[in-house]
Amino acid sequence: MNTTLNQCPVCGDLLEVTRLHCPACDTTIEGHFEAGGLSQLTPEQTAFIMVFIKKEGKINKVGQELGISYPTVRGRLRDVIAALGFTPEEEEPASSVSEEERRQWLEELAQGKLSSEDVLKRLGVGTD
Hints:
The protein is mostly helical. It is built from 5 helices and 2 strands; from the N terminus they run ββααααα. Strands 1-2 form a two-stranded antiparallel ribbon.
């Protein structure tokens, strides 16, 4: 049996399901049906998601299976998230602490002028 097309081969727009058929009892239902979330994905995105699930979402293993880099896996995952109508979460912002400040704090820590808790607080890391 053929796989379901989800995009029009002529214009690329999403196809609409208008007929459903039961081969067991030969019932046919016609109308306008929503195919569901994953049907919005391209065949390539669907194949990617199948590997992603198979590898339990472990990005490094997905990359190994597909022969692509970690950033490429992340990019493809973000594309799938967008194709499903979600907004990918933004990356955590990089620390505003300069490298020079970090080095200074580590020196003060080594000299006993600062405690590890003080350094963690300055870095904005909880000590709970």
